[in-house]
UniProtKB/TrEMBL annotation:
Name of the protein described by the UniProt record: GCN5 family acetyltransferase
Family named by the database record: Belongs to the acetyltransferase family. RimJ subfamily.
InterPro entries the UniProt entry points to: Acyl_CoA_acyltransferase, GNAT_dom, N-acetyltransferase
Pfam families, alphabetized: Acetyltransf_3 (PF13302)
Organism annotation: Amycolatopsis regifaucium
GO molecular function, one term: acyltransferase activity, transferring groups other than amino-acyl groups
Lineage: Bacteria, Bacillati, Actinomycetota, Actinomycetes, Pseudonocardiales
Length: 177
């Protein structure tokens, strides 16, 4: 798939600016890798070495060129506090999938909901996106609050929908209004 153009103006909302990954985001990768959950839902190893964190950042940088989507760093005042991505694996069905994670030391400050409020208007500009979905495990109250605060609506409980940490997990399906 040929990559779609990167946004000429970085998506932003509140104190959050969404930007491309840089070498400086190895620090963020190291922080995210210390969270017990984040490595279960993506390609970042748990407790990564510096080399593993660097490789993960390079993978994020390559995902757009591969046509897989738009991986962003959630930046607040020059500091990466988390990641958010618009993934296009279901674009042929008109669906963009959003996913996000916030470094443990930056949680409970509204950055996830602001990141969702930044990426959602951008996602609607991507050719072919007719629906934006978000999947959250039912126990993840912080993520549920962030999605709802950003205007996403709960649509369904999907039993055993996604493998996480080697187990089929129930997921709540949320969609952008």
């Amino acid at each position: 798939m040929t990559p779609l153009p990167w946004p000429s103006t970085p998506p932003a909302y509140g104190s959050v600016v969404l930007r491309e990954f840089t070498e400086a985001d190895v620090r963020l990768a190291l922080e995210l890798g210390e969270d017990p959950y984040v490595p279960l839902i993506g390609s970042l190893p748990a407790h990564p070495t510096r080399q593993e964190a660097e490789a993960w950042v390079r993978r994020q940088q390559s995902r757009h060129a591969e046509g897989r989507g738009f991986p962003f760093v959630i930046d607040v005042a020059g500091t990466g506090v988390g990641t958010v991505g618009l993934w296009l694996r279901k674009l042929s069905e008109g669906i963009g999938i959003v996913g996000y994670s916030i470094s443990p030391e930056h949680r409970r400050r509204g950055f996830a909901s602001d990141a969702l409020k930044a990426i959602t208007p951008f996602a609607w500009t991507v050719p072919g996106v007719e629906r934006i979905e978000l999947y959250i495990e039912p126990w993840n109250r912080g993520s549920l609050r962030a999605a709802e605060k950003a205007g996403y609506r709960r649509e369904a409980l999907l039993p055993a929908h996604q493998e996480i940490g080697g187990f089929a997990r129930d997921m709540l399906l949320y969609a952008a209004p």
